[in-house]
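STRUCTURE:
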């Protein structure tokens, strides 16, 4: 049962697609206070678990910390952080009572989940203008499924997007992209996508190509496609201020950019220098910005990633002005007015400053709305601009699209990647923990920068991370400018990398099938163990293993120098390892705790009792997978419902897409 409450004058975020009647009175759980903004409070029992919050820090069980929905471009994903790039305000409490909360509020919102008081959940925000959805259900899984039903179907990418992708900030010329593509092809390491980071553009201008490096871009797109490799360009939120640049000129002429209080276009510095932000909240401006994706789809591009859309601000002219003034005073010896630490403080707070977010406006429904009141909707609506445009450009076709910032609702238009992580072992585990939480909030097409974005990776770290990435729908190696080269062929023993990535392609029919079944029935691709084994107390505590689809459990290695790991089996399972010589090791293990050995070049998974999964021969691209080589792996006489389609179009309901296979 879902209750929907309205407080004050909420902004219509369109996160929820179902038309639910408003409930009278007060929620069936917790107590509401409207004296200072909005506050929901509810007691937690000792063993209650908190699930959800999507892209948030810390555990699968969110209890014991404080999380703030306030989309932020912060590349330091350390444990103390309360806000990352997204705002996913869906939480499920499971235990003595089960209930879900979705707080549809697009500004800053705090979830204190047993942080101030270990036995208290407090959800609060500054203004009582919101919709609150309270979901009752028999289990956390049931609550999640009810929630997923009301927010609409998750985004479905084309099948090639389930292949492996290589990315690096710093690729500039055709030869840089060719080098990456050829490095993979020459080493026979499978590859389907090469990502184009900001340097493909002319002066970081959206929807342009560097004139010197890409005079004949459509031919280059074709050249790569002939190798079964798609180029996937980045699009940033800020539009460069430059006379004669059509996106800038049209945006200004039509009033499509976010504006300051006085009606002038708001200015913020990002990669191109000073930019304006397209007002993607305004449907007309959103349509205009979205139509620009056509400039690249017309040249053969089939996928994009949207970035810097929190939106990220390096600084504003106002911020710089204030700093300059302070520095002048300091230089003039007025240190009583300007203590040295204060300059440092102002410098550190130039970027993403709340004052800047409170100084510009959107147009929505004929109304002017201050950005900070709907801050968390920017990435959502930038990606929606693209998603809506794809429907106009080629309604029958699927495009690859994922974003950095997001809000629930955006899951209908694209996936997300988890932003600027680091080449740290702890970030493999953080990657794993985020996956089921993201799925609960509708984001199925997700993944992290494998190998780590910031800092220098190591061979073993990358191999272990890839062995998790084998299972994440988005499987992409991406690294920052200035870090150690991280393409798989750059390391000693490329055959180990080939093997791990080949396993992705061997499992692709299964992973794709499970993704599609999850998307088409508003279900989860990744689940915490407790969702499948509700009565099992031990399963409820597992934070480093996941259920994937209905057949398997994954338990990657995420510690340095480990040669295996402990794993908990809630039931008897078949332990499977894809061995470097192409064979498959299997052993049935009884329920309970086990130590399993896993070498750096082996990919482990566990098949649930009585189940089987399809496996094919390895291929170097999704296109080249031969379904004729399909075999079933797992328990004898088990059945598997395979979902298969052309991976390009949207003929999802065709009965021919589903085949029941038996492992005889
Ligand atoms: C941001 C993105 C990162 C990208 C970089 C340059 O930091 O998160 O993925 O490489 O910008 O565009």
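SEQUENCE:
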């Amino acid at each position: 049962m879902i209750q929907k409450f309205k407080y004050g004058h909420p902004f219509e975020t369109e996160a929820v697609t179902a038309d639910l009647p408003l409930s009278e009175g007060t929620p069936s759980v917790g107590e509401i206070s409207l004296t200072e903004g909005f506050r929901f409070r509810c007691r937690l029992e000792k063993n209650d678990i908190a699930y959800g919050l999507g892209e948030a820090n810390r555990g699968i069980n969110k209890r014991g910390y404080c999380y703030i929905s306030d989309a932020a471009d912060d590349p330091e994903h350390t444990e103390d952080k309360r806000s990352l790039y997204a705002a996913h305000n869906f939480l499920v409490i499971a235990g003595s009572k089960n209930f879900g909360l979705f707080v549809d509020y697009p500004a800053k919102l705090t979830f204190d989940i047993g942080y101030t008081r270990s036995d208290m959940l407090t959800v609060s925000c500054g203004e009582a203008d919101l919709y609150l959805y309270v979901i009752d259900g028999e289990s956390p899984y049931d609550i999640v499924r009810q929630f997923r039903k009301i927010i609409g179907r998750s985004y479905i990418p084309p099948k090639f997007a389930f292949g492996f992708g290589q990315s690096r900030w710093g690729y500039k010329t055709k030869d840089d992209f060719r080098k990456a593509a050829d490095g993979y092809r020459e080493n026979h390491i499978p590859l389907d996508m090469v990502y184009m980071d900001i340097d493909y553009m002319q002066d970081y201008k959206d929807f342009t190509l560097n004139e010197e490096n890409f005079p004949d871009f459509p031919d280059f797109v074709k050249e790569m496609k002939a190798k079964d490799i798609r180029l996937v360009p980045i699009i940033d939120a800020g539009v460069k201020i430059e006379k004669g640049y059509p996106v800038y000129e049209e945006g200004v002429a039509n009033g499509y950019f976010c504006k300051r209080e006085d009606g002038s276009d708001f200015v913020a510095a990002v990669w191109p220098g000073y930019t304006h932000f397209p007002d993607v909240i305004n449907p007309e401006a959103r349509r205009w910005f979205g139509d620009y994706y056509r400039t690249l789809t017309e040249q053969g591009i089939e996928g994009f990633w949207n970035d810097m859309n929190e939106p990220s601000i390096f600084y504003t002219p106002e911020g710089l002005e204030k700093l300059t003034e302070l520095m002048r005073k300091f230089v003039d010896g007025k240190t009583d007015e300007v203590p040295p630490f204060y300059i440092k403080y102002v410098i550190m707070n130039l970027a993403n400053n709340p004052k800047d977010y409170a100084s510009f406006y959107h147009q929505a429904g004929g109304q002017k709305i201050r950005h900070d009141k709907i801050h968390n909707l920017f990435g959502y609506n930038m990606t929606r601009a693209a998603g809506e445009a794809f429907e106009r450009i080629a309604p029958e076709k699927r495009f690859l699209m994922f974003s950095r910032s997001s809000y629930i609702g955006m899951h209908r238009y694209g996936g997300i990647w988890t932003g600027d992580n680091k080449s740290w072992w702890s970030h493999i585990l953080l990657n794993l923990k985020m996956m089921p939480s993201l799925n609960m909030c509708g984001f199925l097409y997700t993944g992290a920068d494998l190998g780590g974005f910031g800092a220098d990776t190591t061979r073993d770290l990358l191999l272990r991370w890839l062995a998790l990435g084998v299972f994440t729908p988005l499987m992409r190696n991406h690294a920052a400018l200035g870090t150690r080269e991280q393409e798989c062929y750059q390391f000693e023993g490329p055959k180990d990398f080939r093997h791990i990535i080949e396993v992705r392609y061997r499992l692709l029919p299964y992973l794709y099938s499970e993704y599609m079944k999850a998307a088409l029935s508003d279900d989860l691709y990744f689940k915490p163990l407790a969702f499948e084994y509700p009565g099992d107390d031990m399963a409820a505590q597992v934070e480093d293993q996941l259920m994937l689809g209905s057949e398997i459990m994954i338990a990657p290695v995420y510690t340095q120098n480990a040669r295996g790991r402990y794993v908990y089996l809630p039931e008897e399972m078949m332990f499977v390892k894809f061995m470097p010589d192409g064979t498959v090791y299997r052993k049935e293990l009884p329920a309970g705790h086990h130590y399993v050995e896993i070498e750096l070049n082996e990919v482990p998974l566990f098949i649930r009792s009585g189940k089987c999964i399809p496996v094919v021969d390895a291929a170097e691209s999704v296109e080249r997978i031969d379904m004729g080589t399909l075999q079933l792996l797992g328990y004898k006489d088990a059945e598997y419902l395979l979902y298969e389609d052309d991976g390009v179009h949207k003929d999802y309901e065709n009965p021919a897409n589903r085949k029941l296979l038996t492992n005889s």
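REMARK: The first strand starts at residue 2 and ends at 7.
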